[in-house]
Design brief:
Shape: globular
Largest sheet: 3 strands, mixed
Bound molecules: zinc ion
Radius of gyration: 12 Å
Oligomer: single chain
Number of strands: 5
């Protein structure tokens, strides 16, 4: 077991299908970040966090 990955996204609608490089993929599921800051995929446990648009990018 490894730590769940946290992925920053710019859109509130996310398509997750697990890890394509490892036999731990899962059927495609659409996840939606509502008013919260993020959402966890119920299949692979990845956490998607909404990335704020910031003027600085370094
Ligand atoms: Zn997933």
């Amino acid at each position: 077991m490894g730590p769940a990955k946290t992925i920053k996204v710019q859109e509130r609608k996310i398509l997750c299908e697990g890890d394509p490089h490892f036999p731990l993929g899962h059927p495609r599921v659409y996840l939606a970040i509502g008013d919260s800051r993020g959402v966890d995929c119920p299949y692979c446990g990845r956490r998607y966090i909404l990335k704020k648009e910031e003027p600085k990018d370094d």
